Amino acid sequence: xxxxxxxxxxxxxxxxxxxxxxxxxxxxxxxxxxxxxxxxxxxxxxxxxxxxxxxxxxxxxxxxxxxxxxxxxxxxxxxxxxxxxxxxxxxxxxxxxxxxxxxxxxxxxxxxxxxxxxxxxxxxxxxxxxxxxxxxxxxxxxxxxxxxxxxxxxxxxxxxxxxxxxxxxxxxxxxxxxxxxxxxxxxxxxxxxxxxxxxxxxxxxxxxxxxxxxxxxxxxxxxxxxxxxxxxxxxxxxxxxxxxxxxxxxxxxxxxxxxxxxxxxxxxxxxxxxxxxxxxxxxxxxxxxxxxxxxxxxxxxxxxxxxxxxxxxxxxxxxxxxxxxxxxxxxxxxxxxxxxxxxxxxxxxxxxxxxxxxxxxxxxxxxxxxxxxxxxxxxxxxxxxxxxxxxxxxxxxxxxxxxxxxxxxxxxxxxxxxxxxxxxxxxxxxxxxxxxxxxxxxxxxxxxxxxxxxxxxxxxxxxxxxxxxxxxxxxxxxxxxxxxxxxxxxxxxxxxxxxxxxxxxxxxxxxxxxxxxxxxxxxxxxxxxxxxxxxxxxxxxxxxxxxxxxxxxxxxxxxxxxxxxxxxxxxxxxxx
Length: 576
Prior knowledge:
single chain, alpha/beta, 8-stranded mixed β-sheet, 19 helices, about 15% strand
């Protein structure tokens, strides 16, 4: 029998969690047509001797669908082994855009051109204003308006990964209600929202997502979400939610009850029967003073709370970012935390000069102490100074946090930040928001899946280019989240870790024919040099690929090989 491709001599980790076995895998068209001993018949082949063969990874929480028109190759995903992603998360989607555009974050750096601001952006803008700026900044014309038109656009240009997407509640609500956010939709508006959901399902979306910390989803009441969840359930769809964890991130919001934020989607799942996924889960508790042992305990209590609803019939899973430093982007410089004052000053040099003035520094100190700025806010986060670490400096030791430096200097933490900036304006940092113990604990649950919470991009990325001081850069997870899970946060055998990235999410989501190496399934496959798998994670320059994933096959076609400088667009839109 002739094959289009044979992978020979691999240690097959089939995605079920079962013990690995040595076998060859034959591919015909886009499917796996044989698993076993395949005699050399002259078919094109890859020799996987000494390496593992696994199903392609499934990213259960992605934003790549929103930037797909800019980065169709999905190179940062493919090179870390992701062959399928679930996009349209956190209430964001690239349609409908007939009237209003809700910021999705890939346009972060260009938002000042769309609607100039100093402190807080207005994240809903007239569509034509946004499209004009996107064209000016990227040279790309956005011509679609509906879900079906966007799907047609993506399919026509091709895509590197398989894409599953959701309808974003925030974008739909924004397009229907405009700037009228802080109220429920009236009867006519709800009809329009449901009509957009209908059109989205006709285009192949798998469900609805909400972003409960982001306007306008943040302003929807419980009854509105339940009504829409029931509507989506009847269409055969699922419900994904960025749960209510921080509240709208402006100034000093009311600090929400985090456990209540997790309880809301659990109640919705129980009341409606809709299959539900809680996005980028953290524990339902704030631990202060910080203690990793308490984080581990908080993870156990949070999981017990979720299990209680599962035992009562809620069909719920969740995803977790395999790291402790956030999702979509990273803050590269200490000065980046003070972007409003950099804008006012007009340059980093002038901001530092202003900071040297006693009265300016005192006024800024008072403003920060009052909790007027979310990025550095002792009122919202009393442990803020424990979460900022030095990564590169000629004057402070890498790995020290702000509180440690402050104590050594006998200064307050805010004064220490000013001292560091005055001494070294370009001092580099990273921010943590949870502990390894919390992440590892949550990911130990059988319904805890792995996600990037990023955009698929390339080695340039969409942030910081051409800026004196970038406010944000792509998060390292954009490039290495899945190898990082395997190497750092996974528990159990390698086979069990691969199962969590492949067969487990495919089973829960009902992604047919993917996630398991078996005859008749789609040929989404990875050849992994497990002995030399490295994340290459870097917070000083995050735009770097991991190593060890030598071949990526999507729908039977080689998408990444060691010899290829570029990737091949072999992905598909997977429609519900």
